[in-house]
Design brief:
Domain AAA: 540-689
Domain Tyrosine-protein kinase G-rich: 386-457
Enzyme class: transferase
Domain Polysaccharide chain length determinant N-terminal: 24-114
Shape: elongated
Radius of gyration: 66 Å
Pfam family, one: AAA_31
């Protein structure tokens, strides 16, 4: 069986085209509410506007330059700063001037000059007749703030012209106030300049005294340092140059001495090597370079000659011969002198090496002393430079502050202003407030918006099911069709059988459309049993069930209506059949089905009444006997329609929904509450009932909310229905 199991969370969200059209139709339906609210707001705005006092405005035009005219040369700078061509600077400057014009300082000057704090007409107290009360009210009034609220600054576009406008109930006083505000602004501007100049001069004078004292202290510190460092006769640069020359000289001599020591040391090492090679023979010294000098060579020659002579004498004479002894004595003397001379040569080389090493040591000492003196001079130079730099800075600052002080004293003598009056204010006797035309237009627009808001609010507060969109989008159900309202004061029986007795009416056409929709929902396996219920009482479920049964019987089906509302049964009264034998009797085993089923005036339509009211209807519907009864009638008839109690009242409908092929929910247009409908659907979802959809009952086709949506239902029927629609 086709159909859907209802999901309580189902339904669409968001503003769909259908939802938008619903809002538009809601507005159109409440167009008189919108127009009424708009008219009320417009009238209130008009009354308020006409009751407002007339306000006049006058304006004074000023030319405001960034800088005042310059009478002194460019070297003399003013305290207020220099003119700049930057766009943002000019924008901020003119915004600042606007704030100054509307400041309490400027307004206070005007109030004091004109005595506005005691002017009852200006303060709006002219209507107070009691003198004491008026004086007390004037004492508590804020005249400065009142004037501030009336001042408006209107800059002229792409120029340096600014208009100062003042609003007042008196046109002449408005012009006077505008001119006085302009004059007060110029005076305040000049006073601000003079105050800043005076403050700057006072600060510079105090700073000048400090800098003069600091400059003197720093100059004395430089003098004391030069005196202590003996810099009065020779500068540090000269002393540093002398020390540098000495260091260079010492380095040069030290290099020479080091080279000489290297040579002498090599000579001494050679002598020591010769001495080690001939330790027993003194003649090794003959190999020394100094042994070839003239005196040593003479001694060597004499030694050689005497030794030869002694050798000859030793050949002639005996060893004790006097001549031989004399010769040998002479040889010994000459040999001693010769060896002594050789030893002096060795000693001379060693002495010269010692002397050179001592000289190098002294040079190193002198070089260290010169370097220490150079470091000391450098240190003094750094300290001197610091003191000199501090002294120069103090002197420079002193001269700078002194020059700036003179410039400020000179510029302070000038009384020039950068503000000039272009046009004085004149009284204008055309009021600027209230603007009647604008206020009426604004009131009308605001009224329309308020009316639209009220209409939408009423639509949002309306919580009933009224249209197909409500059923499909807000409840998430399939829309099966509508049942138009049956006009006229008809008896209940005629209303129930209206479809049968008026087969060409719009109600009958709508009922046949619902029948077709139900059949097309399950074309392959048509339903056998169908529960017709509602969320609450008095929503037309019984009339809808009867009308649906009539429409199905008219299509050639054998249809049985079961009155399963065992608390308030109504089908037996609608068809005029007895209720002594019915469903409750058959369930408990009394009577037969053929005897209980009653035929009606509608061909093919039969009814099975409720029977005697049982004390426990819900338990009775749960019995196996009722289930068997339902299967039996489903086998004998083509369609079985169950008229059940409301879902939110009792649980009978939910019980029946579990035993039938599907459920149809009847909703009364404009009466059924959406929350009540959702609760009913939730109870069906809890028992997994299969929902075919919903029928919108008692639809007033003449209502504006439906527009031409269901107009075809009223135009398609016979002449009787057309006449009824035309009369409506």
């Amino acid at each position: 069986m086709d159909g859907t199991v209802f999901d309580p969370a189902g339904g669409t969200s968001g503003l769909t085209p259908a939802g938008l059209m619903l809002r538009v139709r809601a507005l159109w339906r409440r167009k008189w509410v919108v127009l009424g609210v708009a008219a009320v707001v417009a009238v209130l705005g008009a009354v308020y506007t006409l009751r407002q006092p007339k306000v006049f405005s006058a304006s004074t035009s000023l030319i405001i330059d960034v800088m005042a005219p310059r009478f002194l040369d460019g070297e003399v700078k003013e305290v207020m700063g220099e003119e700049r061509g930057n766009y943002w600077f000019n924008k901020e400057y003119y915004a600042t001037q606007s704030e100054i014009i509307t400041s309490r300082a400027v307004a206070g000057r005007v109030v004091d000059k004109l005595g506005l704090s005691t002017d009852a007409a200006f303060l709006g107290l002219g209507g107070v007749s009691d003198e004491k009360a008026r004086v007390q009210a004037m004492q508590g009034a804020d005249a400065v703030g009142l004037l501030q609220s009336r001042i408006r600054v209107i800059p002229a576009k792409d120029s340096r012209v600014m208009n100062i406008a003042v609003d007042d109930v008196d046109a002449a006083r408005a012009a006077l106030l505008a001119n006085e505000v302009a004059a007060a602004y110029m005076a305040e501007n000049l006073a601000l300049k003079l105050r800043m100049t005076e403050d700057a001069r006072t600060w510079l004078e105090g700073r000048l005294e400090e800098l003069e004292s600091q400059s003197k202290v720093s100059e004395l510190a430089v003098y004391d340092f030069k005196k202590d460092a003996d810099m009065l006769s020779t500068s540090l640069e000269s002393r540093m140059s002398i020390v540098s020359d000495r260091i260079n000289s010492y380095n040069l001599n030290l290099t020479e001495v080091s080279a000489r020591i290297a040579g002498l040391q090599a000579r001494v090492e050679a002598i020591q090597k010769l001495r080690k090679s001939s330790p027993d023979d003194e003649t090794w010294a003959e190999a020394l370079p100094g042994a070839k000098d003239g005196p040593i060579q003479d001694l060597k020659k004499s030694y050689t000659e005497v030794r030869v002579a002694c050798a000859e004498l030793s050949e002639r004479y005996l060893p004790e011969h006097p001549k031989l002894l004399e010769c040998q004595g002479k040889l010994a003397v000459i040999q001693g002198d010769f060896l002594k001379s050789l030893r002096n040569v060795v000693r001379s080389a060693e002495t010269e090496l010692s002397e050179a090493e001592a000289q190098r040591k002294n040079l190193v000492k002198l070089l260290d002393e010169a370097k220490a003196e150079a470091f000391l001079v450098n240190k003094k130079s750094i300290e001197y430079d610091r003191l000199k730099r501090e002294s120069d800075n103090n002197q420079r600052l002193y001269e700078l502050v002194l020059k700036r002080l003179k410039d400020i004293e000179l510029s302070g003598l000038l009384r020039t202003s950068n503000v000039r009056v272009l046009d004085l204010a004149r009284p204008v006797f055309v009021p600027v407030k209230p603007n009647v035309r604008r206020n009426l237009l604004v009131g009308l627009v605001m009224g329309l918006l308020a009316g639209v808001g009220v209409a939408l609010l009423l639509d949002l507060l309306e919580n009933s099911v009224a249209t197909q969109t409500d059923i499909e989008e807000r409840l998430g159900l399939a829309f099966l069709g509508i049942m138009p309202r049956i006009e006229g004061n008809r008896p209940p029986k005629e209303r129930d059988l209206y479809v049968h007795r008026e087969p060409k009416s719009s109600v009958a056409e709508c009922c046949r459309a619902i029948r077709t929709n139900l059949l097309f929902m399950s074309p392959d396996t048509p339903f056998k049993t169908l529960v017709v219920t509602s969320s609450g009482p008095q929503e037309g479920k019984s009339t809808t069930a009867i009308s649906l049964g009539v429409a199905m019987a008219q299509s050639g089906n054998r249809v049985l209506l079961l009155d399963t509302d065992m608390r308030r049964p109504r089908l037996h009264r609608a068809f005029g059949v007895p209720n002594e034998l019915g469903i409750s009797s058959l369930v408990v085993g009394e009577g037969s089905l053929d005897a209980a089923v009653k035929s009606t005036e509608v061909p093919g339509l039969f009814v099975l009444p409720c029977g005697p009211l049982p004390p426990n209807p819900a338990e009775l519907l749960h019995t196996r006997a009722f289930t068997e009864l339902l299967k039996t009638v489903a086998g004998k008839f083509d369609r079985v329609i169950l008229d059940s109690p409301p879902l939110n009242a009792v649980a009978d409908a939910a019980v029946l929904a579990t035993q039938s092929d599907g459920v149809v929910l009847v909703l009364k247009a404009g009466k059924t509450n959406r929350e009540a409908a959702r609760r009913a659907l939730r109870s069906l979802a809890d028992v997994q009932a299969r929902m075919y959809g919903a029928i919108l009952n008692d639809v007033d086709l003449r209502a504006p909310r439906y527009g031409d949506t269901y107009l075809a239902y009223g135009q398609y029927g016979g002449e009787e229905s057309k006449d009824r629609v035309a009369q409506s």
